[in-house]
Amino acid sequence: MTSAVTIAEVHKHYGALYALRGIDFEIKQGEFFGLLGPNGAGKSTLINIMAGLTYADRGAVRINGFDVRRDYRQARRALGVVPQELVYDPFFDVREMLRLQSGYFGFGRENHAWIDELLETLNLGDKADVNMYTLSGGMKRRVLIAQAMVHKPPVLVLDEPTAGVDVELRQILWRFARRLHQDGHTIVLTTHYLEEAEQLCERIAILDQGSICALDTKQALLSRSPYRRVRLTLADAAIELPESILRLVEEREAQSITLRLHRLDDQLGAVLEAMHQCGGRLLDVHTVEPGLEEVFMELTCRKRGEVGC
Amino acid sequence: MRANTIGFYTLFTKEVWRFLKVITQTILTPAVTTLLYLVVFAQILEGRVEVYEGISYAAFLVPGLVIMAMIQNAFANSSSSLIQSKMNGNLVFVLLAPISVWEFYLAFVLATVVRGLLVGAVVYVAALWFVTLPIHHPALVLLFAVVGSAILGALGVIAGIWASKYDQLAAFQNFIVLPLSFLSGVFYSVHTLPPFWQQATFWNPFFYMIDGFRHGVIGVSDVDPWKSLLVCLLFLAVVSAVCLVMLKKGYKIRG
Prior knowledge:
Chain A has 309 residues and is of the alpha/beta class. Chain A has helices spanning 43-51, 72-77, 94-104, 112-121, 137-149, 167-182, 194-200, 218-222, 243-246, 268-277, 292-304, and strands at 5-14, 17-27, 32-36, 58-63, 66-67, 79-82, 155-159, 186-190, 203-208, 211-217, 227-234, 249-253, 256-262, 282-288. In chain A, the strands form 3 sheets. Chain A has a 6-stranded mixed beta sheet, sandwiched between helices. Chain A has a 4-stranded antiparallel beta sheet with strand order 2-1-4-5. In chain A, strands 12-13-11-14 form a 4-stranded antiparallel beta sheet, with no helix packed on it. Chain B is mainly α and 255 residues long. Chain B has one domain. Chain B contains 10 helices and no strands. In chain B, helix 3 (57-88) crosses helix 9. The longest helix of chain B has 32 residues, at 57-88. Chain B starts with a helix and ends in a 6-residue tail after the last helix. The A-B interface holds A 45, 48, 51-55, 72-74, 76-77, 79, 81, 83, 85, 87-92, 97, 100-101, 103-108, 147 and B 1-2, 4-7, 9-11, 13-14, 17-18, 21-22, 85, 88-90, 92-100, 250, 254-255.
């Protein structure tokens, strides 16, 4: 089966700055794929190359098997992009903008019913005849999603769709993205909210300084963290802890102590034994598995050779 | 690869629709400005200047003013639409679509031709209040109007793509388009100029648009209208080629 997105040895530089250094990976059909990375990692450049908004210096990008340069018409028809910035044409209202966008992709009146459906699905029905400049940021974001979906693309890129939106809208957008995914769309999500990627994505690529520093399933990435945390609740807050436990303490507040344990070097059994020997009585033991944020920090900091992350 | 005719037509319609939404600014204002030129110059010079024998100064001036208004507005249409879309960021919607560089170019340029023709028609009809001016060669008038507007429309696309801010676009308009259109024989015949300026005018492609258009209206001109048409078509080919190369390379619009 043809991959939804193929990125083959893509290089891009702006003057002396190398934005992408030989990026190479594939996104399968129907996948919910996360593209993460700190600011300036190259995420937007990569998405712009996929969308034909920027040209790569070397390498190739294919959408559903269509080269974004050679077969640009088919490639663009297969791709919908929700841009990061809240852009709009101040001359037109919401429905006019959607109809124009539909026309650019070669659709006529037969697509108007789908446009109306999109307006209803995204709760934009009562805003259809309103100019975009009167809408809130969240509403504008919904219109951009509708615009990206207007030509029914099989692959949808959501470039930081929840940046600056409130919790309620974020939930609506997540539900909509999940529904699209269930309907068979391939979704590529870039986000700064790692919790979002953790909740939605099946596979994740972490990009840093123009290179891929991790590409794996969410579960495999989460298991990469060498640390886990254990929160102990003590019966006596004043107890004196032995050195073997003190070196593991990350946070201590009244009766609660959070320990950071290395998966290989620090055994939970040994910690509990040491606690027992020093007379510390435990009321509760709670282990906390690492989140994507921790893995992200670990990978991006290690790549830069930074310490203390 | 099949053409995206609906995509092209939608972009063309959008460009026409855009200027019609602000018709006071895009059609009526330039018409009023041009008529003010007519009132002032024709009033002052009528009876004092006779450029061609048997033709009043007002009859000489009107065709020049009409085509000057057309080409200036054609330039304004594509250039302002593009720079606004670039500054607002909404050009991305067109760039994401499966529209070829030819379709992009033709949509923008034809929309400028429509605006040029509308402005020209409004100015001409209004000018009939001041001067009786039957059209001698309607086909020639239409040909020069379309070609002249298309040239400036294509120049507007070039300027809109090249300019990164409004200031640069204003410089293009004020230092290139405006001098070339004013120094092109709108207000005078090239034969009344000293030899140096006469030669300089013959190197100004705007002169041929205006002279050819004037021939279509009053039946008299400084140079053979077919020579003017040839020069205009060559100039259109050059600016179109530059425009298409810029679009093909994605110069300043595709990262």
